[in-house]
Design brief:
Distance between the termini: 40 Å
Bound molecules: S-adenosylmethionine
Helix content: 25-40%
CATH topology: Rossmann fold
CATH class: Alpha Beta
Largest sheet: 8 strands, mixed
Strand order of the largest sheet: 1-4-3-2-5-6-8-7
Number of domains: 1
CATH architecture: 3-Layer(aba) Sandwich
Number of helices: 7
CATH superfamily: Vaccinia Virus protein VP39
Oligomer: single chain
Strand content: 15-25%
Shape: globular
Structural class: alpha/beta
Order of helices and strands: HEEHEHEHEHEHEHE
Length: about 240
């Protein structure tokens, strides 16, 4: 048996040896191949960990890399990418069809500073190298409201620690949720990771005092956020700063 090369402390294996995405039967899995340099899927999202800046349509060295988790078709990420052509963006979602739609719209617009990952975000730590990401965004993750479902919630102590590994010291993790119970759960998790994340700001009513909140447009608000604001639901939000 060949000797294993020791791993540097800063570098995890490119793909986890114990994990492979299953064979996808979704028709949009094949259609995603229409955008080989724009949309990465399944194990391919773990192939360039630590080197994503080289995979954009523009030279990436020295540019900020921003990553949105649960980006849907990338309505927010696409707007950011169009507004900030000097920065790099990656949108992650696990639905094939909406990632295909996001890639289609990105190609139509000719944006070269945006990539999409069709992936399970539980794999975040294998997608990026240590400190590769400048800012991470998680907007309105599924709240899994019933107690029996809480185990499915993405935001928890372990994922905050994994996020801290991929975000550079001084980098940002911005979170928004409509769900009171999930926000309390998040706060409990924040309290356990004070060694790696500092809570820079938090609010339980992001749009308080703004009579025109209903008129806010993407990317200041997400598509889900627009609906929540319309229904009078208060948006809970936290800005975490990576210590170090
Ligand atoms: C409630 S939607 C919010 C979408 C968008 N952020 C917004 O605010 O309009 C949650 C999104 O997260 C995605 N999602 C849920 N679980 C995921 C997972 N494990 N990995 C990747 N994406 C996931 C869903 O497909 C969906 O697009």
């Amino acid at each position: 048996m060949p000797a294993r090369t020791p791993l540097s402390a800063e570098r995890l294996p490119l793909t986890h040896p114990d994990y492979k995405y299953g064979l996808a039967r979704n028709p949009y899995s094949a259609k995603l191949r229409e955008f080989p340099s724009l949309a990465y899927s399944d194990n391919a999202t773990e192939t360039y960990a630590g080197a994503w800046r080289e995979k954009f349509g523009i030279p990436g060295a020295g540019r900020e890399l921003h990553v949105e988790i649960g980006c849907n078709t990338g309505h927010v990420t696409r707007a950011w990418a169009a507004e900030n052509p000097e920065k790099l963006y990656i949108g992650i979602d696990w639905k094939f069809k909406i990632i295909h739609r996001g890639a289609e719209k990105t190609a139509e617009k000719g944006l070269r500073n945006l990539l999409f990952f069709r992936a399970n975000v539980e794999r975040l730590r294998f997608m990026f190298g240590a400190g590769e990401v400048d800012a991470l965004y998680l907007y309105f993750p599924d709240p899994w409201p019933k107690k029996a479902q809480w185990k499915n919630r993405f935001l928890k102590e372990s994922t905050l620690r994994e996020a801290a590994r991929v975000v550079r010291p001084g980098g940002l993790f911005h979170i928004k949720t409509d769900h009171d119970g999930y926000y309390e759960w998040m706060r409990d998790a924040f309290a356990k990771v004070g060694d790696v994340w500092e809570i820079e700001r938090e609010t339980t009513d992001l749009h308080a005092g703004n009579p025109d909140a209903g008129k806010l447009e993407i990317p200041a608000v997400t598509l889900f956020e627009k609906l929540f604001i319309k229904d009078g639901i208060k948006i809970k939000s936290a800005w975490l700063r990576r210590r170090g």
